[in-house]
Amino acid sequence: MQLTRSAGLVLHATSLPSGKLDAEAYAFVDWLAAAGLSWWQLLPLTPPDSTGSPYFSDSAFAAWTGLLAEPDAPVSEADLDSFRARHAYWIDDWEQFAGPDAVAGQVRFESEWARLRAYARARGVRLIGDVPIYIAPGSADHRAHPELFLAEGVAGCPPDGLGPDGQHWGNPLYDWAANRREGYRWWIERFRRSFELVDMVRVDHFRGFVAYWFIPPGAPTAAYGHWRPGPGAGLFHAVEAELGELPLIAEDLGIITDRVIEVRDALGLPGMAVLQFGYDGDPANPHHPDNAREQLIAYTGTHDTNTALGWWQDEADDATRARSGLNPAQPAWSLVERALGSRAGLAMLPAQDVLELGAEARMNLPGTTGGTNWQWRLAPGQLTPELAARLRAAVAARKRSAPRAT
Fold it and tell me: In what order do the strands lie in the sheet containing 296-299?
């Protein structure tokens, strides 16, 4: 997949002023087009857990009806039958898990989402979705397909810059041998569902498909885990054989080995650079904007990092600030301009960084639950016409293409 030089904004649907697929969502699409942005990137659209995290979902397939603008819209029997026929692989499992109104909820979501997506496409705005590598324990898929998961051990990641104990996620791990024996059917259907909803998909924790962190039962922290081999490129080849070319982004963050890079490049997938990570003084740092490749998505930050201003104020030391060369009067906007000016084919900007907001607007702090995680929202009118004009000028000055209706 080749990237066209363009730019976009990262904003989950729950961060819209209403948190719904209502008039505010359409107004947001209009603002993106006015700002010269061709992409809207969202977090997973599946149901979040009780803390609001969309990465610990009860389904890998069902969309979250909490986003609906009209949750009580009428649904006909013909619509229900049609949806069941088109989604036969997973909808019965979801209905058994979620209850008798589950199918109607998915029909309503499909209707609202299709209208919003068509509206965006008519304005040249395409959508980027997100496929978490793992699902929640006891979820609909875990119950329906226990043979595809290991009986013991849970997911996480080893100690790194985000924490000395690593991260203990607690998700069930895949039995990759069992998945391979069934021809990766569950994964094929999962990606098929994703591409029904969005134009491109970010594959969360891509390195876990090459090797994953196994945390044994009873381990007090993730630091007691160890690496085990994943399916590698074989899974993606199986998906591609049935679905065709895969418009995927490899979220290649964390402890990345040469083998992870080899698999990513062999599949022709663009990776990610997070500019906040780029100013440690290492001239070869892959996150530095000067080292960006064309086949890359450059982010100022992600949903798991601080905002650009929060990073500058609370995390970057004096030496890092000096090395960055960012404008100390406007560090967030300066980082936005660095992302836009890099060689990366696609520059993705969290809404908080375009708005130059501080740590109070952070979306998530990894390794924690509750608090303000997943709670940040735009205020009505916060994305102004003046800001759209400023951003459109910055996008054009860096020779990134404007939205084109398709």
Answer: 248-250, 200-203, 126-131, 39-41, 6-10, 346-350, 296-299, 271-274
Cα gap 192→195, rounded to integer Å: 5
The angle that helices 233-243 and 185-197 make with each other, rounded to 10 degrees, is: 60
CA separation for the pair 339, 398 (Å, rounded): 10
Q: Is 404 a member of any domain?
A: no
pLDDT the model gives residue 162: 67
Phi, psi for residue 78 in degrees, rounded to 5: -65, -40
Mapped onto helix, strand or coil, the DSSP state of residue 242 is helix
Give the pLDDT confidence score for residue 404 in this predicted structure. Answer: 85
DSSP string, 244-260: -S--EEE---SS--HHH
Residue 1 lies in a domain: no
Q: What is the pLDDT of residues 148-187, one digit of tens each?
A: 999 999 999 998 776 788 889 999 999 999 999 999 999 9
Bridge partners of residue 265, in order along the sequence: none
Q: Which residue type sits at 130?
A: D
Q: Distance between CA atoms of 109 and 73, rounded to whole angstroms?
A: 10
Asked if residue 70 lies in contact with residue 112, where contact means CB atoms within 8 angstroms, the answer is yes
Report how far Cα 279 is from the mean position of its chain's Cα atoms.
Answer: 24
Structure tokens at 22: 């209502």
**Quick check: is 229 in a domain?**
yes
For residues 140 and 158, what is the distance between their CA atoms, to the nearest angstrom?
A: 28
Q: Which residue has the tokens 């949903």?
A: 303
Range of the domain at 386: 6-397
- CATH (domain of 28): 3.20.20.80
Q: Which residues contact 125 (CB under 8 A, 6 or more apart)?
A: 29, 32, 33, 37, 38, 39, 40, 403
Tokens representing 115 are: 């209208």
Say what the pLDDT of residue 167 is: 87
Instruction: Enumerate residue ranges in the chain where pLDDT < 50.
Output: none
| 403 within a domain of the structure (yes/no) | no
Burial of 161 (0-12, 13-18, 19+ CB in 10 A): exposed
- Catalytic annotation, residues: 204, 251, 304
The tally of domains found in the chain comes to 1
